[in-house]
Amino acid sequence: MLKCREVVHQADALLAGELSRRERFVLQMHLIICRHCRRYIRQFEWLLRAIPRMHGSASEAEISSVLKAVENAEKSTFK
Length: 79
What we know:
InterPro entries: Anti_sigma_zinc_sf, Znf_put. By secondary structure, this protein is mainly α.
């Protein structure tokens, strides 16, 4: 069974469709039992969709600041 930290590290690959069938299955099994990781994946997916829309109206510094805040939240949540 995956640990939450491993789910966080694989989130980008999951949403990009880069995981093998086995890796995706194992990750999805974890998501079935872990509401925190389900919420993290939903938020990460939302962020990935929002960034391109922000890019036209936000400066690089603002985008960088948002990404840094997400990373900090990730570190404090998934120790």
